[in-house]
Amino acid sequence: MSVFSEDSESVQDSNSNNQPKTFSQWQQMRRSNPSGVAGYYSTKSQQKMLADRKILGSAWYA
Amino acid sequence: MRSLQLLEQLDEARDLFQSANVHEQYQIEAIRTELRLRGLFTSKQIRPSSMAYESIVAVLFMQMTRTGARLTVPPTVQSNPHKYSIPTSLPRELAASVKADLLLLEGSSYSPALRLHQLVQDTLARVNNTEVVA
Q1: Are B120 and B62 in contact (CB under 8 A)?
Q2: Does A30 sit within 8 Å of B29, measured CB to CB?
Q3: Interface predicted TM-score (ipTM)
Q4: Which residue, A25, A36, B21, B53, has most beta carbons within 10 Å?
């Protein structure tokens, strides 16, 4: 028996976690989820944001 | 070209950061990210206090491009910033900015280079054209 409910979303499976976010999406996250381990200001999120900026180039601001 | 005292400039930048409205916060965040992309703020462990510091430096640079102000950092402050209530990593950030051709160093004074003007102008134009959903 699985400990997870069927509709639970895996971090690995979530498309939104794998696809680069735009500046607008990151700023939405800053306002909705600023703190915590997965929050906007966490080291991991900041590194991911910079990586997204590099991947998307100027399109990051689209 | 004006030459302001370093502490006054940092205080002004801190005040602007703390009183920034929603749109200005977007601008600060964009400039902060662009500066990171160019080798500033290389600390691996990011803390809330360092985020505020990075934002203040971003505002400081924006102010320098708007006013043309120089940032004068005497050698005694460069070597012992903590004694003068200056963020200890600021000299490192300024050196990284010179290396990235964002600031020009003449004696003890830093002035905004053309590349910093372009960076701030381009970034603000992009942010102003970005529709950020509240």
Answers
A1: yes
A2: yes
A3: 0.83
A4: B53
